[in-house]
Structures are given as structure tokens and as C-alpha cells.
Amino acid sequence: MARVWKFGDDVNTDEIIPARYLNTSDDAELARHCMEDAEGGAAFIKGVSPGDVIVAGRNFGCGSSREHAPRAIRSAGVAAVVAESFARIFFRNAINTGLAIFECPEAAKALKAGDEIEVDPAAGRLASSGRNWTCAPYPPAIRKIIAAGGLMPYVRDCTRADRA
């Protein structure tokens, strides 16, 4: 079971990874500052564990188009983000960087900080304390990109397979 870290509406990319850290491409450095400027971010940085899940309100990832934001979340060990809705560019950047995200308004509203949650990305199912939600599962091709760790690793894997 993973622990839920709860954030509100309109969490922007500057809160996910502040601009002052955009001069690095080091995933470990990005992870150290993930959610630093978001409300509740200090506790997140101190307590996040591999496999934990971020749950948020509407328009998660709004703001500037930066792949650093989903990379920081993934590098912090977060297994998935569940939100009422996502900013469009963040949604695509998440897939490109291998971060699983799920738009599930009912779950996002019901889940609280500290809840334990199980996420089944292939089926699009979420479960917590006897409650279950279904979100639209990704198509198989998108699941492969996320499983590979993002678009670039997926393309490298496909290219290697073509050469074999």
C-alpha cells in the first residue's frame, strides 16, 4: 500500500519544482526540491517514500511547460498522481517522462492525506479503505511508454529491438 500526499487545486509547475532549480537535469537534485513551494511541500520532502501517491484537486500541473515537473515527481519516488484534472501540457509531459497519472475526480475528492491507496495502472483502478474507483486506463501503447520510464527510453528500446 502507498501513502497519499494531498494537495489542492491549481498546483502549478513552479510549486512542483521551483524555477530556481531548473538549471539542473540531475534527477536526484530535482527530487530533493519536489513540491518545495507547494502548501504542505516541506512535509512531503521530509516524508515521501518510494511508491507513494500524490492526490490533488483541479488543474494539477498548470503553468509553464516544463518536463522538470513530472521528472521531479517521478524522481522523488512517487508512483502516480491522481487528480480531479490535469493541465494539458503536464498530462503529456507526464507520459513523456514515465509518470503515471490518473484523472479521477471522485477519488481525488474522497482521499485524504495519509490514506493508504493501491493503484492498478493497467486496469485504471484505485482502492483505499474498502473504497474503489475506476478511471480510464491508458491504451496499451501509452502503458508501454510509462513502463519503459518515458518516451525516450521507450524509443531506445524499440530501436534496439528493431536491430536485433
How would you describe what is shown here?
There is one protein chain. By secondary structure, this protein is α/β, with parallel strands linked by helices. The protein has one domain (2-163): Aconitase, domain 4 (Alpha-Beta Barrel), CATH 3.20.19. Helices cover 38% and strands 18% of the residues. It has helices spanning 13-16, 27-32, 41-47, 68-75, 88-97, 105-110, 140-148, 151-163, and strands at residues 2-6, 53-56, 80-83, 100-103, 116-120, 125-128, 131-134. Strands 4-3-2-1-5-6-7 form a 7-stranded mixed beta sheet. Helix 4 packs across helix 5 and helix 7 (140-148) packs across helix 8. The longest helix is centred in the last third of the chain and has 13 residues, at 151-163. The N and C termini lie far apart (38 Å).
Main attributes?
single chain, 164 residues, alpha/beta, Aconitase, domain 4, 7-stranded mixed beta sheet, 8 helices, 7 strands, 38% helix
Biggest β-sheet strands, sense, barrel:
7 strands, mixed
| CATH-derived topology | Aconitase, domain 4
What structural category do the secondary elements indicate? alpha/beta
Count of helix runs: 8
The H-level CATH homologous superfamily, spelled out, is Aconitase, domain 4
Radius of gyration: 15 Å
General form: globular
Our estimate of the beta-strand percent is: 15-25%
Taking pLDDT < 50 over at least 5 consecutive residues as the criterion, the unreliable ranges are: none
Query: Total strand count, please?
Result: 7
What order do the SSEs take from the amino end to the carboxyl end, as H and E? EHHHEHEHEHEEEHH
Number of domains: 1
| CATH architecture annotation name | Alpha-Beta Barrel
Main sheet strand line-up: 4-3-2-1-5-6-7
Class, according to the CATH hierarchy?
Alpha Beta
